[in-house]
Amino acid sequence: MDDPHARDLRPGNGATILLYDPDRRTVLLTRQFRYPAYVNDHPDGMLIETAAGLLDDDDPITAICREAEEETRVRVDEVQHVFDVYMSPGSVTERLHFFAAAYDGAQREGDRGGLAEENEEIEIVEYDIDVALAKIRDGSIQDAKTIMLLQWAVLDGPFARY
User: Fold this and answer.
1) What is the C-alpha to C-alpha distance for residues 154 and 49, in angstroms, rounded to an integer?
2) 31 has which bridge partners?
3) Cα(88)–Cα(20) distance, rounded to whole angstroms?
4) 13, 29, 148, 161: which has the fewest Cβ within 10 Å?
5) Stretch 13-19: mean pLDDT, rounded?
């Protein structure tokens, strides 16, 4: 349907994943520069986030497995679908597919991720789940998808206390 009043609101759908170690009660996140945050008053533009990326021509599961490995150097084969969300439906058509997967933190190596050919400079950070939640409260984590997945993890996910 053509809407003469619509702008090009199709940035592409994406996927994101919360990587967690249930035994160590940790989560694996990334820290990278985000120009839109920087120009919108974030002090240095460095955001702490869950691994994520555009689907490109892949299905959501294939895309998020690829992105997790590229950004965090962690290979995931089994992922749990958490939910799908329209992140900002008043301004863009993007739908984000949310996933979670366990990883073995004892086997993890390195603190840098990303693809050189895509000029990605990604720092890999690992936090205890309680530390990650405190970082939401103190404003260190300001990324919506990350906040949503961390809250899911303690409400209904691997760190829920039933």
Assistant:
1) 17
2) 48, 123
3) 26
4) 161
5) 97
Comparing C-alpha atoms, which of 11, 33, 21 is closest to residue 96?
11
Helix, coil or strand: residue 12: coil
* DSSP class of 138: T
**Rounded Cα distance, 142 and 2, in Å:** 35
> Which H or E run includes 115?
none
Dihedral sign for Cα atoms in the order 155, 157, 160, 162? positive
Contact indicator for 93, 57 with CB cutoff of 8 Å: no
Residue 147 φ/ψ, nearest 5 degrees:
-60, -45
Buried b (16+ CB within 10 A) or exposed e, 94-131: bbbbbbbbbbebeebeeeebbeeeeebebebbbbebee
CA dist., res. 149 & res. 135, Å (int): 14
**Residues 6+ positions from 57 with CB-CB distance below 8 Å:** none
Q: What is the pLDDT of residues 108-152, one digit of tens each?
A: 776 756 555 655 678 999 999 999 999 999 999 999 999 999 999
CB 98 within 8 A of CB 149: yes
The length of the chain, given as a count of residues: 162
